[in-house]
Design a protein that fits this description.
The structure is a single chain. The protein contains seven helices and nine strands, in the order E-H-E-E-E-H-E-E-H-E-H-E-H-H-E-H. It is of the alpha/beta class and 192 residues long. It has a five-stranded parallel beta sheet with strand order 2-7-1-8-9, with helices on both faces. A four-stranded mixed beta sheet has the order 4-3-6-5. Strand 5 and strand 6 form a beta hairpin. Helix 1 packs across helix 7 and helix 5 runs antiparallel to helix 6. The two termini are 17 Å apart. The chain binds guanosine-5'-monophosphate (5GP). The site of guanosine-5'-monophosphate (5GP) has 15 residues, from strand 5, strand 6 and helix 4.
Amino acid sequence: MSKRGLLVVISGPSGVGKGTVRNEFMKNEDLNRCYSVSMTSRGMRPGEQDGVDYFFVTREQFEKAVEEGKLLEWTEFVGNYYGTPLEYVEKLRNEGKNVILEIEVEGAAQIKAKCPDALTIFITPPSMEELERRIRGRRTEAEEIVQQRLAKAAREMTMVGQYKYVICNEDVSLAAELISVIIRRHMEKEDA
Ligand code: 5GP
């Protein structure tokens, strides 16, 4: 039987570029990685695909999944639910795959409590001004939502001390390379 894979949690404030960094380091196939697609009740953004970016569900479907214990962690973020399907993560880890979660900080805290062996990585912006610029740069959300995301981001930044590793996303390819190095080191440790 293959060895159980790592659980890698990539977190940090909304807008910091977690998705971009994740897409970059996921190109490294030697990391034997798989992305865990989350479930959400938020509406689809232009360009997003069901089953690829998220499993898009209704609030009722999400609440049912919570009641049935189907989520490893979940939270309500700026009016929408987000959560990690448990079964998929377990199956892949049991097959020896390293499973990557890209989630906000409350979910990451739940993972830390449930899975103390999780490899937790926090991504910071080069500055709060830059973070605001990135959040506004999306241009897909109303000002009220932007304000809520900014306020939330300031609170999220205070959670940085809870993580094993902290990486600044000044340069996407560098941040992705640093994360790859961390994952490789942990893979070697598991093999040792
Ligand atoms: P967005 O609406 O911008 O796609 O995501 C909002 C926030 O929810 C981001 O910080 C994203 O990382 C986080 N998120 C995405 N999926 C999950 C999940 O399954 N669980 C938790 N806790 N947060 C998630």
